[in-house]
Design a protein that fits this description.
By secondary structure, the protein is α/β, with parallel strands linked by helices. The protein folds into 2 domains: 7-275, TIM Barrel, CATH 3.20.20.70; 284-350, Antifreeze-like/N-acetylneuraminic acid synthase C-terminal domain (Type Iii Antifreeze Protein Isoform Hplc 12), CATH 3.90.1210. It has 13 helices and 12 strands. An 8-stranded parallel β-sheet has the order 5-4-3-10-9-8-7-6. It has a two-stranded antiparallel ribbon with strand order 1-2. A two-stranded antiparallel ribbon has the order 11-12. The protein is elongated, with a radius of gyration of 29 Å.
Length: 351
Amino acid sequence: MSAYTPIKIGEKSVGLDHPCFVIAEAGVNHDGSIEKAKKLIDVAVEAKADAVKFQTFKTDKILIKSLKKCRYQKVGDGEEGSYADMIRRLELNEEMHRELFDYANQKGIMFLSTPFDNESTDMLDRLGVNAFKIDSGNLNHPQHLKYIASKGKPIILSTGMATISEIDEAVKAIYSEGNQQLILLHCTSNYPPHPSDVNLRAMKTLQYQFDVPVGYSDHTIGLPVTLAAAARGAVMVEKHFTLSRMAKGPDHLASLEPNELKQLVEGIKIIGQALGSTKKEPVAAEKEVADNLRRSIVSLNSIPQGIKITKDMLAVKRPGTGIPSKYLDLIVGRIAKQDIPEDSLINWDQI
């Protein structure tokens, strides 16, 4: 396994020499509504994202009833109700998952989801997902990591809140099941994080440390940081989106709206084209420009046949289709074989 070895997810290859894979993270922004979830899929399709991703969980299996909401959840979802009440409202059953999985397939977009427990992992495996996404919160849960890895499918692991040693333990847990189809996502688990807390350069640290493809899971506001990650070589980016940031729910405020998601995908596509090759050489489109902007040796005045050419008879002007200026000293002292008009390109046949 190497950072340069692409990971196959469905029909798409994810790696350094391939287009950045864009996951449109619907998450729980469906608010428990199957119709909203389908609309989110439609938005992801319209934006031309590579995959649309949800979250799959059994509320009673992942948290205690007395757990309180985080600050950002209170802002987005309100003070009333417990964490468990909020999450339960956002839980989708297997029938709903099947309906969304089939709907995504009909629309031509890959369906992915993050399983938060073993039962949910089994459900997604039965659906036939192409890969498993593991959230940052489960990075230090080796039993969960191993269970997902045992399914033998590619794993996308977010690394928010984690130290290098914790990530190392997680990677070893996954590899212990014989599964080396791993993509790490750099992440800052705050909603939203301040740009100064993002540290995009850490993507290179992950790549060098673990020698796997590395991407970025983004929770910042807007497009700049996600686009910067793509420009820094993220093989995959994940970004939350919503039908409206005004909706009530924990994740809407830190999500993109439909037009922004479309702009993100378009921007990442342009960045991928612009990154291009490591070769530094002229491209075909520069030929005409080079001819016009570069300079050649020209006659400053008329030079009669038989005259010895001196430096004060010459100038260096556009276009660049004649003798390059680096040969100026070779022209000086030569004899004009024919009359050379004023302000004209000089060629070797004339001297």
